[in-house]
Amino acid sequence: MDPIWAVAAEMWWVAPIVAGGGAAGFFAVRRRNTLSGRRLGYDAAQHELREARREAKDAADAARVARAESARASAERAMSKDAAPLAFARRAHKDAQRASRAAVARVKASRVRVSTERAALSGRGQLPLARIRSQHDAVLARWIEYETDAAKALAFPDMSDGRKPATAAFLAALGQARDLRPAADARIAPAEFSAYRRAVDDLARTFDVAERSAHGEKVEQPDLPEALWDAARTFMDRSSKMVERTGDLFNDWNAKRRRER
Hints:
- Helix content is 80%, strand content 0%.
- By secondary structure, the chain is mostly helical.
- The protein folds into 2 domains: 40-120; 128-260, no CATH class.
- Helix 3 (40-77) packs antiparallel against helix 4 (84-120), helix 3 packs across helix 8 and helix 5 (128-148) packs parallel to helix 8.
- The protein starts with a helix and ends with a helix.
């Protein structure tokens, strides 16, 4: 018998044990990461990728339907003097194409996030939820300065003026992120984490626009739906309590930073 096969015959029992040990190790690591919250960002990224793919498929289907409607309207135009249906169908087709391209871009961005979160699984940095909470706290710390610093409040009053579109968009995002913020030790589902992360991303973006606008920089003012105006007005009605709570959070955040130094 070939010596290699002889050794293989004698050692046949090793392979199942090695495979079993590897599988046990894999599931042990996976369980530890799940219980610690380390996998939360990755699982949420996978959730977002699935949602993005579904939206991309729906958008592609809508674009195909719009193209067919445009072709139908073009054919009927030859028998009608009314050009409005054709113009409408062409605009709808262009809008559907833009939406489809945007959906494809979201799929690509979601894939990048999955890769990033997969790489973070082996890291020793902050857990995903703690990382997003820290990003949330950082925006709150920057905003609260405009509410508690008299010099800044006088120099940049637009940062507290909910009648300004950029500020109203920020205040609405502030309330949304506040409502979705989980407790530090909370066990949340990937979909909940994904919603909170998007809210914090939106909060950072709207704060940047509001701040640049308040400082006199020309920015594109958002066209807010009435629901966002209502959210901003609701926030302004409760602003004193919010400032007090946010001030406490800001102090806690500063104290934590000092301890970590």
